[in-house]
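Subject: design request, 84 residues
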């Protein structure tokens, strides 16, 4: 897992560097996608902590705050930890 995290960190650094340019000429959907990706990256430390600590209750909160439901539907289901 440590090696995968190193690779992920390198990819994030590369993405941040390459996407840190003026976007005035880019289509709106590209600007939106880059913005969403940058916001999602900010959740990585919390998600790694959940993996390390195995805190299922906190995991549900991170997915709710991040807006990710991993295929689930309904706000109530998103508020519950995965696997419930």
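Subject: RE: design request

Done. Sequence follows.
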């Amino acid at each position: 897992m440590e090696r995968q995290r190193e690779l992920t960190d390198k990819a994030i650094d590369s993405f941040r560097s390459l996407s840190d340019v003026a976007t005035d000429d880019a289509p709106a959907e590209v600007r939106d996608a880059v913005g969403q990706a940058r916001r999602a990256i900010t959740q990585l430390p919390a998600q790694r902590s959940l993996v390390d600590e195995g805190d299922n209750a906190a995991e549900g909160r991170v997915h709710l705050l991040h807006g990710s439901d991993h295929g689930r539907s309904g706000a109530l289901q998103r508020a519950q930890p995965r696997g419930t």
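The helical segments are 2-19, 28-41, 44-53, 56-66, 75-79.
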